[in-house]
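@channel anyone free to eyeball this complex?
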Amino acid sequence: MIRYVIRRSIGGLLVLLVTSFVTFFIFQVGPKIAHVSPALFYVGKIPPTEAGQKLIEHRFGFDLPIWKQYFNWAHGIIFGRDLGDDTGAVVHCAKPCLGYSFRQQLPVTHMIREALPVELSIAFGAALLWLVGGLTIGSISALKRGSFFDRAAMTMALAAVSLPIFFTGPILLLIFKYKLQWLPNTGYASITSDPAQWLKSMILPWFALAFIFAALYARLTRANMLETMSEDYVRTARAKGLPRRTVVIKHGLRAALTPIVTIFGLDLGQLIGNAVITESVFNLPGLGLISIRAINSQDLPVILGVTLVATFAVVVANILVDIGYAFVDPRVSYS
Amino acid sequence: MSVTAQPQVRLDKPDTGDAFLSVRDLRVHFPTADGLVKGVDGLSFDVRRGEILGIVGESGSGKSVTSQAILGLHKGSQARITGEIWLDGQELVGASEDKMRSLRGDKMAMIFQDPLSSMHPFYRVGAQISEAYLVHNKVSKAVAKKRAIEMLDRVGIPNPDKRYSDYPHQFSGGMRQRAMIAMALVCDPKLLIADEPTTALDVTVQAQILDLMKNLQKEFNSAIILITHDLGVVAETCDHVVVMYGGQCVEAGSVNDLFYEPEMPYAWGLLTSMPRMDRTRQERLQPIPGQPPSLIRVPKGCVFNPRCKFTDHVPGERCFTERPELLPTSGGSAGHAVRCHIDPDERRRLWTGDIQPTL
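replying in thread with the prediction:
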């Protein structure tokens, strides 16, 4: 088991390495093909003089070979780095240094550190909602297949997966923020500084996100439950004289849960660093919003940093899912 | 929810003699998009304590449907069940799900075929056995565990206290079937239904499992229903046999009746298609031609008529127009009954003259 975790972690590291290199490479190669210096992305709209451009290129290391630039960047993640020129104006970027945004005059690590709690609040809160909602609705639908509840729920689910968040989000805002005025101020506050405000800022995004995912999970749970409830071992459970509740939850739902665990882990991993639309709609300063701003302002180090963090989340989620599987299904063993 | 026709509940117990389980005119019908599937259509039989009843027949003849009807496992499904099932003076067809639940696993239990798929893959074998004990007995988990280990030991699982914590996939096929038997017997059921308990097993293990069941039957004086399509198993284990075809009982009697004086052409067909170790082989085995009947469009008249080679022994078209009754045989032993239009004397002449010598 431990060997498996180590092996998977090494594999995950390799994925991170490749992803970061590819991203890094793309952002270097792009300007090369267009025959513009990357330095131009770091300065204002007025093109600098040739000498000034050279100075900037030297200062940020764009005159170095690409592998050297990558090495410096990667080195900075582990040891931190000093960015500066020979004139003595030095910016220190502490480890883990993911680069320095000259647009924002901030280390990328700092920006991500600010945005990550927002991101995690959105992802985990919504995940909890959709998991509970989806499983409950899906199970009831399966047990009452063909009933009014089942049909209504599955029609709703179909509608929910079809409605994008930039449709449902503004509607939620319109109703609860502007019409009913229940949540007049949805500005973000961290959970430690103002828990009540944090909850107020999170509740609408949670429901908007959970709406879509709960629909998917309800359909998935329903399909899995229909399958497991017709399995022989559920018949055995009934033949033992177990109460219906035990038969359904302990024997039926338990078995239906395994594939859902897999998908849940992947969805959650993907959501971190990927809730772009939700954050834009509800104006939450999460990773998604940062990356949108960075793309608009061609802030390359930020894009690189967010990509790496998002990749990290997906890789970790994948490993956790695979490890979790051994606990969920005793037939799976990694030793 | 499905609308299940509520059967008329008879409060007066009929005269079931000394039978522990008495099934009277049981019908289990499933409405489907293609029509009404008559899984079981008018089945009656009795089982006494300490007796093993064999139910034989092809796939789809209604064996498993019958057993699940006795356990009340069709409740909550689309199935329409009529008739009566009396277990120790209690009527089961009209009983509530709660009543059935308290009987299932306690007073009556079932061993299913294919023990791998019949055990939950995510729970330990021992836990699945003690679960069955806990639900019917107010005892602590420790007591239930002790009981489960005791049961595993009794069905011949080595190192039962260690094996208690194994998962089903860590058991071999024979061990899984033993564990299933332990699960069924953990509450000392008075009625045990074994649905093809040896189908998935090799012959050595099969013999061990059958011995085990016979011993348990002697020990607890339980009534056992053994559902199988293996006539060898029937000959070896059962006291009485019900031959099912197309959801009906076509012949019933003692094991001797069935193997030495069968009177129904379907039973003859079963015997001629069975290899015999105690005779020298004379000819090729003769399978019964044709296919089992569709349970939606059951043949008119006798259910067996499309495959029967002896319809010309009945005057007129009776085999094709009139369903024969299950009637006691005239000369045979008590309890021997046959559903056939052929004249009883003619039947015995055909058996002794034409069929028996070819076996």
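from a first look: The longest helix of chain B spans residues 203-220.
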